[in-house]
Sequence to fold (463 residues):
Amino acid sequence: MASVGPAYRRLSWLTIAIVALQFFHWFNPSEGYFYDFAARRFHVTGLELSDDIFAYDVAFQLAGGLLQAILFHLVSGYLALSIASAAAASAAAIVLFCHAKTWLLLSQAAWGLSFTVLYVAPALIINHEDPDNHAPALAANSAAMLSASLSASLIGFILTMTEHDSASSATFIAALVSASASALLCLPVFWAQRQGRIHAAHVAAHHLNAPTRHPYRDTIDDSFSKEPLLLEISEVPEGPDTYRTACMRLMRQRRFWFWLLSYCVARGAHTLCITLWSVLSADVDDREHVQRFNGLVLFLGYAAAALLVLAWGSLRRSDDHLALRAWLGLLIIMSLSLSTLALLHSYPAFAILFVVYNCSAELLLVVVLVQLAALVVKATDLHVRRDVLNVILFARFTISLTLQSLFQLGLFPKWGRLDNILGLDLPVRTQFVALGVLVAILSACVGLIRLINHLRHGWRWTL
Fold:
């Protein structure tokens, strides 16, 4: 493994600016105080927050994602990034300075819109960065979000130990200042993007003057050259390459769907685990002085994951074979960790295993995203890549949210005003086991594919 320094020193100023923006965007120490603060300020109960406010979270994110995808395509991805940053600041400001319940719902809508930075920022990074720098760039992007979460968790833990009455207000003020800083960081992002136009023009000129090659044929020499093609060349529409034909080319590749659906299933399961882990923690040991350490456990989980992600991004070469090995190993760790967490009754063992789980899940998401980026780059021309990235990463965002909603409807006893669609009333430990089984099924499917490939082509790490 190479040292971290050289891989990250090659990143462009635009990527560095977006990574800094991501840190401030996700720095939100108020998250653990929202229930208590909102209940006092807006005179609502926990049940009202759950049924009338939080229940619309996914719908707001889906609507915000659609709006951002349209703006990304018709205007600019940088405008979409600015809107997401401004929405985060607006959400914190509404909670701090407004009092009506309607405003609380509006703050949730703004927060949902701010979540679209999850796909807008990686799309801009992949489109701008040299393909050789995608792994460190995307790793740095993920590490920035993890660093924001670990910093917020540490601050929340310290405030919990002090038990000061103004702690919750202070965390919302900190969230507002941080979100405002992320919005201001859009200015250097715009500057770096403008400076990069000259470089992009030179690259485009080089591509126009180079011998014409079909984008998909370019992938034959460097991607599973010993394997039969997943898509016959005759199936690819001929003529000028547009973002529609490029998307069709990607969607006809089995490998593309493998990585896309892997990401979406893992993201949906991981989001639910992060949502439920504090509930499971209370079931393991509900003593107040023990529960105060939840913030510290989150800090350690995010810190370890950030370091692991940065180490992966510093690898000199992360090819498909290495990524597939890492993917399968991390899935197995995720599955075993989720199922074992539900069986533990010791808080120290629970905390250690949660850190292991979080590391495997966060690294898995980065590994898969790098592979998706490589597929998009190999299958598209430069002049259509931005629009293809918008479509593909918006699809990733939407499918992940949809699967998360289905998991919630199938596992939670109640979600908002909706009852469990299967009529189940599962305790939290059973919900964790179910998530572990879901990830295990995904791992088993890959094992089956590997066995079939072994019987047909010999023992090679391919899809």
Strands lie at 414-415, 418-419. The longest strand covers residues 414-415. The radius of gyration is 22 Å. The first helix runs from residue 4 to 9.
